[in-house]
Amino acid sequence: MQRVIDYGFLRNLDEWVRMQKKVLETFQKVEKDVEEGDRLQLILATRAAFQHMMRTIKAFDHWLQDPVIISHITREMLIEVWQVMYKVLTELLEIDIKHTSEMRQLLEKLAREGKLNPLAAAVKSEEEEEQRRPPTLSV
After folding, report:
1. CA–CA separation, 68 vs 5, rounded Å?
2. Which of 39, 43, 59, 106 has the smallest number of CB atoms closer than 10 Å to its CB?
3. Angle between helices 39-63 and 7-35 (to 10 degrees)
4. Share of the chain above pLDDT 90, in %
5. Alpha-carbon torsion, ordered 86, 92, 98, 104, to 10 deg
6. Can you give the residue ranges of every domain in the chain?
7. Number of Cβ atoms within 10 Å of the Cβ of 42
8. pLDDT of the residue at 120
9. What is the sign of the dihedral through the CA atoms of 56, 61, 65 and 69?
């Protein structure tokens, strides 16, 4: 008995690839303008990149749960995905550690100097701050 593939599934994969190429092309076109842009342009472009990265990572995660994919994907393809994801993960963690540390120092300095924007940052007493729950970690 010969198995027939669902061509709708293949068309969905084709459409995903077309969409990803279009997004890549768009980001490549605006990259120089963004780097030369103002803070708002940088924020908007970075958030758009984050949103698309999250969408792509979520799709990859679903892909690696799909029985058709996981029963046919080659070890080489999995190694390639792992190596790229590991690189992205380590770079993301490194920049997060760096920027969070730098931002903390900057905010503390601005608070000491009385230069925090009162509309953006609520100043709390030490007692209020001690009652604040620490951030939770999940691994």
Report:
1. 10
2. 39
3. 160
4. 76
5. -140
6. 1-73, 74-107
7. 13
8. 86
9. positive
